[in-house]
Amino acid sequence: MRVICIALLGVALLAGSAAGASRGGSVDLVAYSTPKDAYGKIIASFQKTSAGNGTGFNESYAASGDQARAVAAGLKADVVALALDPDVNMLVGKGLVPKNWAANSHKGIVSDSVVVFVVRDGNPKHIKGWGDLVKPGIQVITPNPFTSGGARWNVMAAYGAQRKAGKTDKQAIAYLKKFFQHVPVQPDSARAALQVFAQGKGDVLITYENEAIYAEKKGVHTEYKTPKSTLLIETPVALTKSGLKKPAAKAFYKFLWSSTAQKAFASQGFRPVVKSVAKDYKFYKPSGLFTITSTKLGLNGWTKVQTRFFHPTNGIVAKIEKSLGH
Amino acid sequence: MSRYLLRFTALGYVAFLLLVPVGFVFYRAFGDGLGHAWDAVTTDRAIHALELTLMLTAIAVPANTIVGIILALMLVRTRFRGRGLLNAVVDLPLALSPVVVGLALYLLYGRGGWLGGLAERGVHVLFAFPGMLLATMFVSLPFVVREVVPVLREIGTEQEQAAETLGARPFQVFRRVTFPAIRWAVAYGVVLTTARCIGEFGAVSIVSGRIEGKTETLPIYVQSQYAFDFDTSGAYAASVVLALIAIATVVLLRVFQPKEEVL
Amino acid sequence: MVSDRAGGALARGIALGYLSLVVLLPLAALVWSSRSHGLGAFWDQATEPEALSALKLTLALAAICAVVNAVAGTAIAWVLVRDRFRGRGLVDSVIDLPFALPTIVAGLTLLALYGPGGPFKVDVAFTRMGVLLALLFVTLPFVVRAVQPVLLELDREMEEAAASLGARSFTVFRRIVFPNLLPAILSGVALAFSRAIGEFGAVVLISGNLPFKTEVSSVYIFQQVESDNGAAAAAVSVLLLAISLAVLLGIGAFRRWRTKYDHA
Questions:
Q1: Which of A11, A124, C217, C250 is most buried, with most CB under 10 Å away?
Q2: Is A235 or C120 the better-scoring residue by pLDDT?
Q3: Are C23 and B18 within 8 A, CB to CB?
Q4: Given a cut of 70, is residue B52 above it in pLDDT?
Q5: Are the C-beta atoms of C199 and C140 separated by less than 8 Å?
Q6: Fold held by C38-260
């Protein structure tokens, strides 16, 4: 009996320490849901460099908003690769990420993408532009904006496209309301939304271009259309305060802008931000491309947009969802 | 005539609902050949998920067995105020949704929770092994107790009292008289507990953080492969491992069926 | 007695301490959290339209599941006890599978079989039927295992007497067998209902979790936790628990009332 107790205690201690031990040279990467394959490649390349040799990685991929909250709740993270700036800035507010996280030549942005429409093979419902999404009977799949970063890019792309077409702020918001009326389900992350669409629900999926490319790679019977007016997606990466203490994490962070890493991103459908690499890849340039800082279109940068549109109770989207009975 | 109709309907229901799905797991997993399935289930990540699942089980099962026997003895052999309450508390994990269990742990050990300060002191419960262990222990707690209690009631205290009057010390009484009488019930309970530990999904999913290669159990890995990586063959291969364990469980349950006769 | 010695006291202390740490403390935190913002906030969160819709769906499906199980479970138990056929032992063992198989695996295979692209050309993914199917899977053993031992113990004399007096077999069942089985059936139903209300793993894949259509309470709670709305999740959990408890007490009371007049 006593022997059993001691043995149990020993196993428990071993297990606990094995699971919790931070080996010298282990990096915790917490990312949003879609770049898993890209980071898989980048990590493998990094581990072949002298700076990365022998470094272990712990990776976690889920909806951007949920991941930010998880890190705030205690999920260990040295490098956070989230879908948009506000999610990183939330962690700055919690004292987990330094205020100057974006102070590098690329403003902390590691890759770009654009908002696209994923449709069934052959585009049976002939969906080409934002106006087609609100035609009668069309079902649109987009993730939940309060958990997913991709969902917020989608909403702002929809708003911005209306403004680009000359609509006023009020008219664009009215479009958003119609848009949400066509959404039967809001999965929690961009990847989950792709899963739902792949299972047969919905006529069109709004998502990142890189996710559309991933779907084709995985043999899902879809194709994608890039609307003429769409939003440039810029996804940030930041070192947390704990990451700053780890040389391996700092080296990995720098590595993300190396040509090897940028090429790895490009191979997975992400648009590289380093110009010397970008020029080798022929990504489609939408004629009506705009960014989150296009003030003429009412987009005044993420800080203002996040509060105005995505505040959990007073934001425009919250009000729309409430009026629709959600 | 009606006998055959009843038999056909009842067995048909069981086949359609149980056998076909379980058989289908094997069909899908081995659809591309044995080698392909083997590859899918021997990736680093899958092996780690299996190891983690087994490690959690290896701790939770003995703990719940020992505590379960003690609690059963308390419930049957001693009179104390609050015995009914203890009975209800032991049964509680069976009535709770696993999601609620995970939520309770999340509220207790997360930031702002009563024990949230532990994380700041370096003791990580959530998103780490200890939290997953607590969740596993919670959901698998009642089984040994519930199997042992009716047997303890049935056998009565005569033999134990006889042993005591002959000078046996309490632990000897337990080891020589009580335990042999309840051992099949304990074995049955242990099998149920083990099956529950291995198969637990909801509660552990919430507290684990789903860190690949770190806090993914095999059930979580199955879901992640299917819903996240679009790797259906990987999901099915891992499911087969779990299904085989389930079948072994069912066989063991049959073997350890509490005997009708008691000494 | 074992319990009177110091060693016994230590053992009891360890057991109670373990129970407190593992079960009571987290539950206390749960109940506390649901009250922490006041009763008003509790009620608001628990009665959010989406939460209420999920609750109604959960209770309705669990009720249907319980009824189906009452009938099917009794029939299966009957066939396993009273009928003789080859492979009976095998079928008897198979009944335990839902206890042993991880819920997520059950959910995955049900989705693969009865969802899009399945071999039977039926698609119940994203439907309530799909959710019901998953619930029926996980609750199958409860009524069967509750009724079997009672059927085994049942004295056949009364049935034979009634049959010899000319009663048809269904009448025999209805008048003689069923009243004896009722307490066991109700026990099994209570367990099945309780399980169905909280089921998560088997349901989460096939239901598609469409709010107001196929989203059940357990999934709603899960999503609230993922969004860090711990208080909302706690409010719904406590409400669900209260309703579940009320139903179980109700079934128990009904059972005692029925069997009070049931003296052979």
A1: C217
A2: A235
A3: no
A4: yes
A5: no
A6: MetI-like fold (1.10.3720)
First to last CA, chain B: 43
Pick the CATH number of B43-255 from 1.50.10.10, 1.10.3720.10, 2.102.10.10, 3.30.420.40: 1.10.3720.10
| pLDDT at residue A35 in the model | 95
Report, in this order, helix, strand and coil percent for chain C, each rounded to 5: 80, 0, 20
Per DSSP, the residues of B125-168 read -TTSHHHHHHHHHHHTSHHHHHHHHHHHHHH-SHHHHHHHHTT-
d(CA B56, CA A128): 51
- The domains found in chain A, sorted by start residue, are 24-111+234-278 (3.40.190.10), 113-232+289-323 (3.40.190.10)
pLDDT in tens, A242-296: 999 999 999 999 999 999 999 999 999 999 999 999 999 989 999 999 999 999 9
Backbone angles phi, psi at A96, to 5 degrees: -100, -20
- Distance of residue B1 Cα from the nearest chain A Cα, in angstroms: 44
Interval A76-124: pLDDT, tens: 999 999 999 999 999 999 999 999 999 988 999 999 999 999 999 999 9
Say whether A69 and C223 touch across the interface (CB within 8 A).
no
Chain A residues closer than 8 Å to C41 by CB: none
* Residue A7: per-residue pLDDT: 52
**Of B66, B171, B212, Cβ closest to residue A60:** B212
Per-residue pLDDT, averaged over C58-69, amounts to: 96
How close is the nearest chain A Cα to the Cα of B126, in Å? 7
Q: Do C208 and A63 touch (CB under 8 A)?
A: no
